[in-house]
Please model this.
Amino acid sequence: MPPQRTSDDVKCHTCGILVRARGLVPHAKKCRKLAREKEEDDEVKAIIEEAAKKFDPIKIWSMERHNHENEAADSEDNIDMQGSMPRSRHSLILDFNMALPGLQSHYDDANPADQEPLLQLDDIKVDYHPHSQIPSTIHHFADFSCTRPMEASVPWSHTPWEPFWTQLDFEVAEIALEAALNTDQTNRLLSLRLYKFNGMRFVCFINEPWTADAFWDAQSRLPPEAKPLAFILYADKAKLSSFGTQKAYPIVCWIANLPVEIRNGTGLGGGRIVGWLPIVSEDPEHAGKSSFVNFKNAVWHESFLKLLESVIQISRTGYWFECGDAIRCLLWPLILILSADYEEQCVMALICGLKGKFPCPICLVPRDEQSVLSHELRLRTSTESEETLRLAHSKKSKKERENLLKTYSLHDIENVFWRILLTDIHRVLSFDCMHVHHGGLWRHHLWKELQFWILELGREAVAEIDVNYDAFPRWSNLTHC
Model:
């Protein structure tokens, strides 16, 4: 028989359920939170239903596409000052008047055929990749925005709602579709380049991964209908964790296609731990031997292979994916950035490090010429490294094989990143500036050197420097690492 309620039970004023008296406070707190979330969800649902009554987003998209195809010759003269792609006058007015009532198009009272872009200092030019079939646009600096509107004021639920993580994530995505939001929101997977007018010419600048050459070049190598799905991977031994007697450190992944405020946020779309790399314990008997170094590198790459197995094949074929807006896209996964410190980069690129003839994982700079910055040096490539390893394995003796690999400072291990199409390990290597400069170069080297010379100046100098440091203004909520 179920346990009988006692006189110690009290009724929750929110849900009406009888609970134990000593558990009433946490229960009531949870009930109020759930009730508040339901009320907020109902408000968002009402907004969506009201918006759905006013217009059909699929119909709007179809009209825009039809108008864009019929009036492609005139589209270059239509400059959208709000950051959207060029479209016909009718399409622009439709977007502004129907999707965002109260806002008026810049061209409501103008004939698009009479519009000529008058260039001003700091004007921004946006060049879309040819595969997108979107003409270039020019924007005044004051009107230009590369980021999507923040939605911090919109509440969201922590309850899972498939295929979205939360119900509100689904609802916000639905609002974005129905409101026909701007190009940055609806064409986020299309690479583009940004230029700023300096009074004489447009100069290219980079503010997001998809505005850099690597993203553009990847798009150029894909079929016209395909979209790069670019990953940023970060590995750091400083984030070591223990699992019983074993130690490992995390691999964190970001989607480079997402805007920085989402990509670097803590919510949906932010970085996620996708795997763990094991630490091979040092063996005093074999420490320093090339065979043991190769063993540790082989363990690292075999472990990373477990993470990449799911994308190796589709990195060569792409895959059709139905996005949250019910539109199917041909996504093509690739690794855009591998972020790590130097020691980890040597493992990723499988080079011999500081003791090798060529200690750089990116170029073939001789060890004794690293301080010479005036020379043009040959860059490493995955194709060349793979070919070098193949030739080494064709040698008859072990000594011949080792000598050939030493010529390029390579280890006798197959690199797991060679299996990912459109990913050149020597091109994707990067590092976290704050981690390297603040946590490494400054903390362990420059700061100690500075302290030494400050102490050499005497007590008065030390006291004066302390006073000057204390005089620095405090910046509330400023974080950098």
